[in-house]
Description:
This protein is α+β, with helices and mostly antiparallel strands. It folds into two domains: 6-177, Regulatory protein AraC (Jelly Rolls, Sandwich), CATH 2.60.120.280; 181-286, Homeodomain-like (Arc Repressor Mutant, subunit A, Orthogonal Bundle), CATH 1.10.10.60. It contains ten helices and ten strands. The strands form two sheets. It has a six-stranded antiparallel sheet with strand order 1-2-9-4-7-10. A four-stranded antiparallel sheet has the order 3-8-5-6. The mean pLDDT is 87.
Amino acid sequence: xxxxxQRLFRSxxxxxxxxxxxxxxxxxxxxxxxxxxxxxxxxxxxxxxxYYGCLLVLSGNGTHVDSExxxxxxxxxxxxxxxxxxxHSTHIQPDGLWLEFYIxxxxxxxxxxxxxxxxxxxxxxxxxGVTPALLSRMEALLESCRRAGDTELPxxxxxxxxxxxxxxxxxxESQDMDPSADWVDRACRLMGEIxxxxxxxxxxxxxxxxxxVGLERFRKGFRARTGMPPAEYLRMRRMNAAQSMLADGHRCxxxxxxxxxxxxxxxxxxxxxxxxxxxxxxxxKLY
Length: 287
């Protein structure tokens, strides 16, 4: 795991626009350090952007629920794509360790980059990793966006595209080098579908058998690739489903507990607070 300089644990962003179009002329980037006590809850639930956003996780852990409802563990080196028009959620562990660098560009440019195969919109969570060189380029992009005159912005937009191209290349290389990529992805989909459903229960042993991997190899490979033990992922996925239900506002705490198969609201509330950091009743008020 790469050590991230402490000076970067801050929220520092720049918003620029190349044209008068608020979405298609967009160029914004920066660091976001999400920690408890900063007002609105840290996790983003049921978001839908009109533009393309992406973020590289530099520190911290969480899970991302994509537009199809599949949940993916995210940790340092995970790259999350927020595709225009797709509903998604990113659930963050509330330990104050979360740091991301994000880039947002216009929808028309995004669609062009997809057609040119520079971006791949088929999967929302990629695994490029983090390198000192990539981190330095992101810092330089932020500072340049802050200082640049309007006539220089197209050049910086090109640099943002180059960073995205680099991330995509790093992801493809990581897939080629990691033989566990396929079965870990299948395990994530299975656990997301079952643990995130109403009353769904499955054990780590059952998941390992399903993907055809021995239990110890499964535990080690899953943690190495996702940064999270499979049992913790199962707990997080169940709590993600709870957060989505609570955020919708159509069910009370006891109804959510019942829907997810907990014996009572007290047991559910205790586990929710342990994982999410606040009681479910308080979480619901924030949304």
